Amino acid sequence: MSMAAELRANYDYDFEKFREWSGVVNNSTSPVVLAAKLTGAYHSIEKGLTLEEPRTLFGRSKVEFIIRAVRALEKIGHTSVATRGGRGTIQDYMRFHEEHHFSLPADYEKELRDFVSEGKELFPGGAVSLTKKEVQDATSFDYTRFVQTRHSIRHYTGESVSPERIKLAVSRAIHTPRAVNRETRRVYAAYDPVLRDHVLKYQHGNTGFGHKLGAVLIITTDIREFDIIGERNQAWIDGGLFAMGLNFALHADNLGTRMLNWSADKEQDQALRSAFEIPEYEVIITMMGVGGLPESLHVAASPAPVADDILSIIESRPGTGAKPPAGRR
Fold it and tell me: Which Pfam families does UniProt cross-reference here (predicted)?
């Protein structure tokens, strides 16, 4: 097979996966897809509630969809962060209109009150308060030093890494931004040395240090929740952001990490999936090695460019006042 034909075959592999599993062509009514649409709808209302001057009665069609979707999912027992977020957002939507003494059409107000009355507790969702001082207090540390001491580590103690430390890092990385607030990121963790070594056989960049890793992680993204053509590459964007957030979270816990590149062809990708039962509807983003740091070690200098080498200023030019095409979100 020529290089061009092999390249086409691998692009076709990615295309077929997205075509089959995403919501772009396959407009599935599965609970996962409905929960994704629900999340997108209630996040739209959340964004409206955080504006400096929210409009009264905004987002009615989305609100009515949220109510239908939450009830449908709860009816089949598919309660999740999406249904709780939907209920919490409608609770806050009602609270916003009441606090500002905004009147609602009688039928719409009844629909909202009936829905809110179904919940026996306060749910997360809507808008929350944040002060500048809270941000200042949380960021009063030497961030430059923090990022400059994060390196790709190739020298580990060989000590095991506890599942609790990985779980803590994942819980922190969850706050990494993702499109429309949908939770598509997944992490598979191998702690047992035999399993660790088995996972690493499918990745070819761990020679000389892989046997001393305390854990190996596989990061994936669920593509069933993407439903527009423009999101055809979103799995790698959301997954990549999450991987970096996880990397920083592990660094903050004084653990060494090494991104283990998954630039794999379709045969290599299928082999890893088969070995560890990774679903076809998940895109494998990267692996990550994690381990204990020795007291002293060498890291690659990796000279970096200065900011001016990669930063460009967008300046006004003739004809730049044209109206951009309308988007869906």
Answer: Nitroreductase
Taking a C-beta distance cutoff of 8 angstroms, is the pair 280, 21 a contact?
yes
293: phi then psi, degrees, rounded to nearest 5: -90, 135
pLDDT at 249: 98
Residues pairing with 218 in the sheet:
188, 287
Phi, psi of 295 (to 5 degrees): -65, -30
Could you give the 3-state DSSP secondary structure of residue 189? strand
Kindly state whether residue 186 falls inside one of the protein's structural domains. Answer: yes
Per-residue pLDDT tens over the stretch 175-224: 999 998 899 999 999 999 999 999 999 999 999 999 999 999 999 999 99
Last residue of a domain, one of 101, 118, 135: 118
User: Does residue 79 sit in the same domain as residue 167?
Assistant: no
Rounded Cα distance between 188 and 224, Å, is 18
Contacts of 115 (CB under 8 A, 6+ apart): 67, 70, 71, 87, 90
Domain harbouring 215, CATH code: 3.40.109.10
Residues 179, 85, single domain; the answer is: no
Residue 164 phi/psi, 5-degree rounding, is -65, -40
Q: Within a domain: residue 51?
A: yes
pLDDT tier at 30 (50, 70, 90 boundaries)? confident
Nearest to 242 by CA among 169, 293, 329: 169
Distance in angstroms (rounded) separating the CA atoms of residues 220 and 281: 10
Q: What is the domain extent for residue 78? A: 20-118
SS3 call for 75: helix
> Are 100 and 170 part of one and the same domain?
no
Q: Could you tell me which of 110, 119, 113, 109 has the C-alpha nearest to residue 79?
A: 119
Give the distance from CA 1 to its chain's centroid. 36
Structure tokens at 295: 């007291």
Together in a domain, 197 and 252: yes
Contacts of 206 (CB under 8 A, 6+ apart): 200, 213, 258, 260, 289
